[in-house]
Design the sequence.
């Protein structure tokens, strides 16, 4: 990413380029520098997706999906979730928006699939516009009785249960198979991971890849009082990226064609032996290698991913990353341009509400922060 410049003149020219005022070229396809997702009594903004061809933005506010046009004007919303709606991505093949949906108390985790063309009014019922696919692999790891005491301790971090520290799912993104920048398209789903400094088996980001070509047969409406279990029996790939423990794992996952890498935005971890970066990238061109999954209570081997070069590097652990706040939403727009979500709060008529803004950034590759704001 970052080049070593040996000439002072070259270094000065590069710095001027990176700090130059925004121009029309910084706004791909004439996209605005900021899109407002509104103010809502739902939870904070969790993720975003864009349909540039049709001219719509989508924001997840924990238990609410909001659809706007590219000027930030409300088109419709989907309300009434009792679960946790997280990261979003648009499937370019079918035009639908996919998101992570958690029901921890019911030990049920889904990919929510929204028929977004049907979202035309506020407060629509999820049953009218959404289908779901159950993720058995996630449930098995989340509900794993790791200490063998015959019981599962539930939705708590301070326990040896939950294989790999799995707290469910959050980050989702469409992109190629790991190890090939032009491989077959997959839906990649990232685990949430509990923050727990007292265990050693939770220091990886766990990413599942699915071939969703046959998923129509699994799609079901979701009855929240009786969650279904219709989903694939197995994953098409399970991978591990060694980053050190983070707080709730990959919050936002995004495949970026500009760098050819997978971007992972996280909440900062708490283990003092790790650098606790907040932004990582998986090298999209590096083939996964089979090796030991470090820290497991019993020796275990799996497919290991390589962190992309550049940024900061911690010599003690070998972990590479950056410091950046992309955990509330991240969209790759192409040509090194991105929408990054800014979360906020406002009070309207005495009521506290969460806000979300999609703000335009460009890639610089610099350390410690590899993006800069446009506009």
Sequence:
């Amino acid at each position: 990413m970052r080049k070593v410049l040996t000439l002072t003149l070259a270094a000065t020219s590069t710095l001027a380029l990176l700090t130059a005022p925004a121009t029309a070229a910084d706004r791909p396809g004439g996209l605005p520098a900021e899109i407002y997702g509104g103010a809502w009594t739902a939870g904070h903004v969790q993720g975003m997706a864009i349909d540039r061809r049709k001219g719509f933005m989508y924001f997840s506010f924990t238990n609410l999906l909001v659809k706007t046009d590219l000027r930030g004007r409300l088109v419709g919303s989907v309300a009434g979730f009792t679960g946790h709606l997280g990261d979003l991505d648009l499937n370019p093949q079918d035009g639908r928006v996919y998101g992570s949906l958690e029901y921890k108390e019911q030990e049920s985790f889904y990919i929510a699939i929204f028929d977004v063309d049907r979202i035309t009014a506020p407060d629509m019922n999820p049953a009218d516009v959404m289908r779901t696919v159950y993720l058995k692999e996630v449930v098995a790891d989340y509900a794993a009785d790791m200490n063998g005491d015959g019981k599962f301790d539930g939705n708590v971090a301070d326990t040896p249960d939950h294989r790999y520290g799995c707290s469910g799912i959050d980050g989702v993104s469409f992109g190629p198979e790991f190890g090939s920048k032009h491989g077959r398209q997959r839906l990649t789903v990232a685990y949430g991971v509990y923050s727990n400094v007292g265990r050693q088996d939770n220091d990886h980001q766990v990413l599942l890849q699915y071939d969703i070509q046959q998923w129509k047969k699994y799609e079901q409406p979701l009855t929240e009082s009786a969650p279904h279990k219709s989903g694939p029996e197995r994953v098409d790939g399970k991978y591990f990226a060694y980053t050190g423990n983070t707080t709730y794992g990959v919050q936002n996952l995004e495949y970026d064609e500009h760098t050819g890498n997978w971007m992972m935005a996280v909440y900062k971890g708490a283990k003092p032996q790790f650098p606790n970066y907040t932004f990582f990238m998986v090298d999209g061109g590096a083939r996964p290698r089979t090796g030991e999954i470090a820290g497991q209570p019993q020796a275990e081997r799996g497919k290991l991913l390589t962190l992309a070069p550049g940024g900061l590097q911690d010599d003690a652990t070998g972990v590479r990353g950056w410091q950046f706040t992309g955990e509330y939403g991240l969209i790759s727009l192409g040509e090194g341009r991105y929408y990054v979500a800014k979360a906020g709060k406002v009070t309207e008529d005495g009521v506290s509400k969460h806000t979300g803004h999609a703000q335009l950034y460009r890639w610089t590759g610099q350390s410690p922060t590899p993006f800069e704001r446009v506009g």
The two ends are 23 Å apart (CA to CA). Confidence is low (pLDDT under 50) at residues 1-22. Helices lie at 8-18, 126-129, 136-142.
